[in-house]
Amino acid sequence: MLSRLLKEHQAKQNERKELQEKRRREAITAATCLTEALVDHLNVGVAQAYMNQRKLDHEVKTLQVQAAQFAKQTGQWIGMVENFNQALKEIGDVENWARSIELDMRTIATALEAEKRKE
Predict the structure, then answer these.
(1) In this structure, what are the phi and psi dihedrals at residue 68, rounded to the nearest 5 degrees?
(2) What per-residue string of b and e applies to 83-94 under the rule 16 or more CB within 10 Å gives b?
(3) pLDDT tens per residue, the chain (119 residues)?
(4) Where is the segment annotated Disordered (predicted)?
(5) pLDDT digits (tens, 9 = 90+) for 68-97
(6) How remote is the C-alpha of 102 from its chain's centroid?
(7) What is the pTM of this model?
(8) Within the chain, where are the H helices?
């Protein structure tokens, strides 16, 4: 009888150990699945952030190129305006020179007419 009780006790203990081992394996499997799901979820967010960063970097480079082109074009426009202003000044100088010559010619003409009348 004692031997039978001992065997029953050992059998129940073995059943409990097997059940406990089975539950431990199930818990490990569930924890692994949960970990993988969390990592996958985080990876999606990280991948999206990485793609957004790449897009932003591309946009920054594009804007830098465009800003450089705009600065170059602005410099060219400024040069053209300065040249135009210089040409206007030169035209004004020629106009003043022509007025001066005209005034001198009138003075000479008046003097010649006065000389002619004296004679």
Answers:
(1) -65, -40
(2) eeeeeeeeeeee
(3) 888 888 888 999 999 999 999 999 999 999 999 999 988 888 888 899 999 999 999 999 999 999 999 999 999 999 999 998 888 888 877 788 888 888 989 999 898 888 788 76
(4) 1-22
(5) 999 999 999 999 999 988 888 888 777 888
(6) 62
(7) 0.50
(8) 2-118
Token pair 């967010």 is at which residue? 45
What size, in residues, is the chain?
A: 119
- In a 13 Å sphere around the CA of 58, the CA atoms on its Cβ side amount to 6
Q: Which residue has the tokens 């006790």?
A: 9
* Chain centre distance of CA 83: 34
**How far apart are the C-alpha atoms of 88 and 95, rounded to whole Å?**
10
C-alpha span between 50 and 57 (Å, rounded): 10
Residue 20 has, within 13 A of its CA and on its CB side, a CA count of 6
Question: How is residue 105 written in tokens?
Answer: 């010619």
SS3 label, residue 107: helix
Distance between CA atoms of residues 88 and 8, nearest Å? 118
